[in-house]
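pasting for the record
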Amino acid sequence: MRSTVFFIVSCLLIAMLAFGTSCSEPRRNSDAYLVQLDSLLRHQPELDQVKQMRIGELKRKRATATTLTDRYMINSLLLDEYSTYNADSALKYANANLEIAEKTGTHDWLVATQLKKAGLLAATGLLGNAEETMKEINRSGLKAYQLADYYEMMIYLYSHLGNYAGPAGTDFYVMERAYKDSIMAVITPQHPEYLWNMGWAALGTDRMDDDLIDTITNKVETSSLCSQTDSKNAYVLAKLYQQKGDYDNYVKYMILSSISDVKMVNADVSSLEDLAKIMFDRGDIERAYTYIDYCLNKAISFPNRVKAYGVTNTLDRINKAYQERGHKQQRRTMFFLALACILAAILLASIAIIIVQNGRLRRQGQNLDAANKSLKDNVAKLSSAQQQLNEANGQLQQLNADLKQLNADLKQKNDELYESNYVKEEYIGYIFTICSNYIGKLEELKKNIHLKVVTKKYKEIETSTANFDMKDELKEFYQSFDSVFLHIYPNFVNDFNSLLQEDKRISLREGELLNTELRIYALVRLGITDSVKIAEFLHCSPQTVYNNRFRVRSKALLPKKDFVESVRTLGAFMDRGA
């Protein structure tokens, strides 16, 4: 059964992979600029509507114009809008401006309008009429900026004449080159078409200026791509990159030029026609057909006879490729349809086999279910026993933990008891020694006084008792106490200072073991916390004890309650029995 299912799945996978490989175009990384261009083409009706709204607004202004100057200016704006949109309407406003220029005798208006009219005639394929219009212009009477426009129009005219003449157009291209040289002598960087003309002057020559390419590139990259100048700059930049052999930038700037043309609803879309050829060469037939079809529609609506003729030739090539691809896809579809039928027959046979196998498996499954049920019961019993064992282990672990804690507490209490017994032994011995010394001194004092009483030396008795100074005795008492305490807790002073602020720690004078503040807290360490008892022990006033304790607590790093508790645990106990 497994081998049969594996065979069916393998056949289906092979068919799906073959179909996906043959019926889909090779996937390419989509350029963001191409996506933007495709979006603009899909929204062409909206762009066309915006164009019509601008034209409508200018027409309304023209209807209210009262002077010839206003009418000329508005006609010029309409002429600019129509010059790449509708040639017939553009010629209408060009002729209207020629009449105004002749009426007013304004030579600049006349020349500017004649140049625009010649450009329209050349764009629509009326090259003879365009040439006649250019002959009407007196070149010798032109100003410097008009001369640049004149040369530019002659370049445009002879370029179209050369394209129209085909192989016989060599002379026209010679004239085009001559006018390109002429315009370079008069055009200035301030002219709107300066970069366009500089680029075209470098094309077809070995004068590839990287600085010029960088300048045009910067201009295009910082432009809004919303004017004919932006489109032309991007187009000539693409041509320069093509001549340089930089294919990626050639395609990029040809797309940017096309974007600018489509934004402006420009009917003279040379860049999009070139881009369609690029897409065709790359095998992207869908885009190539979409772009060239747009170009053809614009050439017909303009109308541009020469452009329509050239676009038709390109469209024929793309159509043939498109149809050929359709035939190939149809043949592949038929092949895979037959393959699908064969696979369907195999699938039906396999299903029948699977049904038989399933019957056998069902019976085996029932037996297996019974065995599984028995196994589950045994597992449940084992699980219950395991759970009880886990609970017993948990209780035992808790008991062990409690026992460990009890042992630790007992050890701590034993240590504390041992320390307490040791301290008591030390101090009992110390007290017996003190008491014995003082009994001896009292016995000696008694004998001296008795002797002097017997001999009636009362004056000497008065003198000896008057000179008896308890300060020395008290000093000796402190010295003995300090020695015994530090014998038991040798690290007490350092440990006590660690509880105080660093700049307020207690420093002992030379020869001192403890001072008054340390003796008070030494007694606290021994368990004597009452200030009155401490005062009696040290032979001082309770106020003195209180003041010293308060002064030390003000230097402490810890709160009052925590400080006292910490003092009671200070000093590493010196185990003399070890």
